[in-house]
Amino acid sequence: MINIPKVKLGIVAVSRDCFPMTLSERRRRAVVESYRAQYGEIYECPVCIENEIHMRKALADIQAAGVNALVLYLGNFGPESSETLLIKEFAGPAMVVAAAEETGEDLIDGRGDAYCGMLNFSYNLKLRNLKAYIPEYPVGTAEECAQMISEFEPIARAIIGLNHLKIITFGPRPQDFLACNAPIKQLYNVGAEIQENSELDLFEAFHKHAGDSRIPEVAADMAAELGNGNRIPEVLETLAQYELTLLDWVEANKGSRDCVAIAGKCWPAFQTQFHFVPCYVNSRLTGRGIPVSCEVDIYGALSEFIGTVVSQDAVTLLDINNSVPADLYKSDIEGKYPYTIKDTFMGFHCGNTPSCKLTSCNMNFQRIMSRQLGKEVAKGTLEGDIVPGDITFFRLQSTADAKLRAYIAQGEVLPVATRSFGGIGIFAIPEMGRFYRHVLIEKNYPHHGAVAFGHYGKTLYEVFKYIGVDVSEIDYNQPRGVRYPTENPFA
User: Fold this and answer.
1) What's the rounded Cα separation, in Å, for the pair 289 and 301?
2) For residue 491, what pLDDT is reported?
3) How would you write the chain as a 3-class SS string?
4) For position 213, what pLDDT does the model report?
5) Average pLDDT for residues 321-350, to the nearest whole number?
6) Is there a contact between 87 and 111 (Cβ–Cβ < 8 Å)?
7) Measured at the alpha carbon of residue 17, what is the angle toward residues 16 and 22, in degrees to the nearest 5?
8) What is the separation of C-alpha 385 from the centre of its chain, rounded to a whole number of angstroms?
9) Counting C-beta atoms within 10 Å of the first and last residue's C-beta, which end of the chain has fewer, N or C?
10) How far apart are CA 317 and CA 309, in angstroms?
11) What was the pLDDT predicted at 320?
12) How far apart are CA 468 and CA 386, in angstroms?
């Protein structure tokens, strides 16, 4: 996977001047040793912070070491101002953990009171309008703190990625796709940049790539990926030309940013002018770590990017598309899986899901567009059933009045044949029917949702909190017995 930022963790311990600094230093070393033994490398800052002068020395040290994700460790109570100033002056994401007391045999000079210090730290953080990740229960042994740090790492990766992201768009949204509205103010608030381009710019760049010497190699790679599913081989060189166009555009336009996501126009004029559909190329770039959303869905691309950097795996963007027919449910699902028919739905898109996330795949024509425009200009989609297994369906969205909102729902793709077309799967999410009505409909979400392959709800929830989504605006599929605010209690 490319386009995913690298995280270099660094841990800095703090010590209140009325506590022995050696207590914090010893506890810090134990956390570092535990983390390295279980999870990997973490930079151990040798400076323990007792005052603002120490803070500046520690900051210079971790900056020189290339640390881009900070772990502030309260080995004892900690100096409130100095520790919060470190977070203020550090340029990247930060977390805070605190030491649990180690033994009832040493509660005189060996007691650190970090349990108390965490309270004062959080108060000072709010006073200075600062952000930091604080775990659900942030006080622990060396082993427990190491585990908490490991859970912070994908959160940090997402925050770093957003602060280095440029979203490149081509064209306005198609008519009748107002649901994918994209007020850009919140893109800047979460750290991303955006470059909006005309379809004509893309069209010109595509034609300039005609005869590119790299086309045969890319087309051969496509053929190898498709294997027996290569049903329209004559379109591969054209698709290769388009893929090179997008990749070269990214390199020429990402500027100071390290990461890129793309939101592209794919109908109706795309087919008539380019004479293919971009679905398969979109799938290939997404599979490599450069998310490409359909229908200029900017927040869809943003959501895909977050899912990619959190999971370090390919994602997809799907329509929450159609219900599962009763006869299919009865024959293939009922009694075999613990879901009602209202827990299930089909997630679909024309062909943008990477081949690695399909049970098998075929190059085909885009059936929906071909109904109006004909098969000849609708070649280039990737069809297949989505691989079964755990998934997280989620979306980060700006409302029409520019407020951030998000949902997260964990579930699975069932190993049940869809009997349909496109990139499609039968999804099962507990209490999906209620979630559909009282979150997706009630809160005006569009039909597109990002899919990460695995259960990443815990991490995504913390990412959304960190970037400023109010917790009252992060929705999830409520379990049975927990009522949504808009749910009729008498229903």
Assistant:
1) 12
2) 81
3) CCCCCCCCEEEEEECCCCCCHHHHHHHHHHHHHHHHHHCCCCEECCCCECCHHHHHHHHHHHHHCCCCEEEEEECCCCCHHHHHHHHHHCCCCEEEEEECCCCCCCCCCCCCCHHHHHHHHHHHHHHCCCCCECCCCCEECHHHHHHHHHHHHHHHHHHHHHHCEEEEEECCCCCCCHHHCCCCHHHHHCCCEEEEECHHHHHHHHHHCCCCCCHHHHHHHHHHHHHHHCCCHHHHHHHHHHHHHHHHHHHHHCCCCCEEEEEECCCCHHHHHHCCCCHHHHHHHHHHCCCEECCCCHHHHHHHHHHHHHHCCCEEEEEEEECCCHHHHHHHCECCECCCHHHEEEEEECCCCCHHHECCCEEEECHHHHHHHCHHHCEEEEEEEECCEEEEEEEEEECCCCCEEEEEEEEEECCCCCCCCCEEEEEECCCHHHHHHHHHHCCCCCCEEEEECCCCHHHHHHHHHHCCCCHHHEEECCCCCCCCCCCCCCC
4) 98
5) 97
6) no
7) 80
8) 23
9) C
10) 15
11) 97
12) 33
Instruction: Name residue 153's amino acid.
Output: E
Total Cβ atoms within 10 A of residue 32: 23
Residue 449 CA to residue 283 CA, distance in Å, equals 15
